[in-house]
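Incident log entry.

Two folding requests arrived from the same account within the same minute. Monitoring flagged them as a possible duplicate submission, but the sequences differ. Recording both here for audit purposes.

Request one:
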Amino acid sequence: MRFCIEGAAGLAYLESVKCIHRDIAARNVLLSETHQVKVSDFGMSDERTMMQDEKLDKVPIKWLAPETMQQRIYSLKTDVWSYGIMRYDSIQVWEIYAEGYEPYPSLSNIQTRAKIIVQNYRMEMPKGTPAAVSQLIAQCWAKNPAERPAFTTIHQTLQDIAAKESTTT
């Protein structure tokens, strides 16, 4: 849970300086020598709150928000969507709850896009995921970007969940 909180804190900072990362994924999260989470790979980042890209060449489809797949729009809220996926696939949640599988493991990129956009499909959280974490991720995956929480809210919610877990164990 600490990794989840630290990742959210780093992304809350990016949000506060209006930086869209555009490539939030486990492969772009590093651990320092002291095991602190560091968000990396700012090659696609942009210092705006919203932007439209001309094409989606060589982008990780399985981490993209529906509006990015449909309209090529990136925003702070598309980073929130990707954080929900990252939390699902990475050290941040997947290794904790789902043993490291890639998101949408049985689907191709084309199938993933169709299921998310046409069928409004969302992955199930792994067994053993706390209900409060599952609810938070469901908010991150809201179809309407305006309904997704800010990273400051995600960070605070995770801190609250961790505090409750520590008092019950």
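Request two (distinct sequence, not a duplicate):
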Amino acid sequence: MIREYLEKIQKELIDQKRETEKKIISLENTEKENIKFIELLDEINDPNYEAFTPRTVNARNKEKINELKVQQKNIIKEKSELQNKLYDVQRRLEECQSIIQCEREKETIAQQYQEEDNAEYKIQLLEAQEMERQRIARDLHDSTVQDLTSMLHKIELSMRVMDMDSQRCKMELSNVLDNIRNVISNTRKMIYNLRPMSVDDIGIDVTLKHAIAKIEQEWNRKIEYIIIGKPFHVKPVVALSLLRIMQEACTNALKYADAKEICVVLEYTENDISLVIEDDGIGFNTKKKVAKTKNSGFGLSIMKERVHLLSGEIQIKSEEGKGTTISIRVPNFVEEEENE
């Protein structure tokens, strides 16, 4: 914005410089012509030729010479003023060009920093994705795989004792059935955590309400939840991102910031949807570079990247001892209904 304004001024100064130079050249040409004319008239008025020149002609020539000399003085004065003006325009033009160059260098540096930040965000995003994959693999190994292995051993044992001890066989198979039900239940929970079906069915507002209820139950803390505006369906990717950010912000506030009170505000407007998570925890210094939150799925930098990918805005306000407020605003990506 500044550079565009300066470039406009630069163009105007260049036009002024060219116009002034043209006027100076024109005056110099007139000055040269006058000098030649005066020399010619002086030659005609030479005393040696007076006998051959009528007196009236000599008088007019002298009058013309005086006029030209006055004009020469005016030309010299005007040319001097134009040269001063040209000097001033040139000085201002050089200053303007210098400032424009500085602005270009700043923009180049800012672009380099932006590219570095984007590269860092991408790396952090890939790290978060890899951590999520490792978490899923660990959950599957620690729960589902171990349960299935245990059931496999029980079924093998039941097959061996089927003829010798049918009662024990029935008991082991009954335990296997209970374990299968637990595996199905745990797998459903895992699938829900990866992608809550309510996002597609009942919308982000109700999904957040259910997620907040689970956090309240897990941590035995009350979380205030406020909805402003008329709810509308948004694209699942937007809803899931807001859900993940809310879950992470609330969990971090309870787990690491020792928050006693948390307020979540979801607001619908005509042009966007916003989410605010405010807590009264210990807070932190936002001026320090915040790395990924310890033991969390993704930290503040990944929150920023998620919002950035949605073409949204995020603000994080926090002070040590004064809690944290995370404000997110994303464009209104309304889910268009298909015409049947």
